[in-house]
Amino acid sequence: MSASPTVTPAATQSTTGTTSGVKSNSSSVDQSPQPSGTREVGNQATWSLSSCKPQFGVEQLRDDNYETYWQSDGQLPHLVNIQFKRKTTVSAVAIYTDFRHDESYTPSKVSVRCGTNFNDLQEIEVVELKEPSGWVTIPLKDLNDRLVRSFMVQIAVISNHQQGRDTHLRQIKIFSPVVNQPVTTADFADWSNFRNEHLQSSCIR
Q1: β-strand pairing of 18-25 with 122-130
Q2: I need a surface site. Which of 25, 56, 82, 201 has the fewest CB within 10 A?
Q3: pLDDT of residue 198
Q4: Could you say which DSSP state residue 29 is in?
Q5: How many angstroms separate the CA atoms of 150 and 142, rounded?
Q6: What is the pLDDT of residues 105-144, one digit of tens each?
């Protein structure tokens, strides 16, 4: 896994969610965007796009290859929809962009929205990007400063650099916190019984 530039956020006022300006530092682009204590859960969701050019769609967004990318093919905003089968705690999303190669296709303003479905999405974060090259990780918390639990996350490209119409995003990751639950005596007994039965079965064969 390659990844992330150092980013320097500069918070500004927002009427909905939180807005922050992010200027990328071109050094250190080979670090993972994954926050500590989290796991990537994008493979547990169904992904869809508002539009795409042929061969520049969801598969390219999720192939762990920074040479490929999603290219939209329509009017702004450009949308990435991530829908889970069960309510999922989402602590952060990370997007990989490359202004040096994509120029006017590079997002300059991104909104992250969460909800149950398309009809009740609420804006959680708005991020302004300044010529980003590498990973930008966007932490997600609701208005009460709690982690977001949601069936759906939508990433919306609101505008691009140099007033570009279509957009390029090279990778997207979505992270959920790892919950460490203590093992009870009953859990250990069940595991021991399962292990003993499995060993006996293996010996019989």
Answers
A1: parallel
A2: 201
A3: 55
A4: -
A5: 11
A6: 999 999 999 999 999 999 999 999 999 999 999 999 998 9
81-114 burial, b at 16+ Cβ within 10 Å, e below that, comes to bbbbeeebbbbbbbbbbbbeebeebbbbbbbbbb
Q: What is the pLDDT of residues 13-55, one digit of tens each?
A: 333 454 444 444 333 455 789 999 999 999 999 999 999 999 9
3-state SS of 106-147?
A: CEEEEEEEEECCHHHCEEEEEEEEECCEEEEEEECECCCCCE
In this structure, the chain runs to a length of 205
Q: What would the two tokens of residue 198 be?
A: 């499995």
Helix (H) or strand (E) holding 84: strand 78-90
Output the pTM of the full model: 0.76
Q: Which pLDDT does position 15 carry in this prediction? A: 35
What is Dmax (Cα atoms) for the chain? Answer: 70
Token code pair at residue 14: 């927002």
**156, containing H or E segment:** strand 148-160
Are the C-beta atoms of residues 105 and 1 closer than 8 Å to each other? Answer: no
Query: Within 10 Å of residue 33's Cβ, how many Cβ atoms?
Result: 23
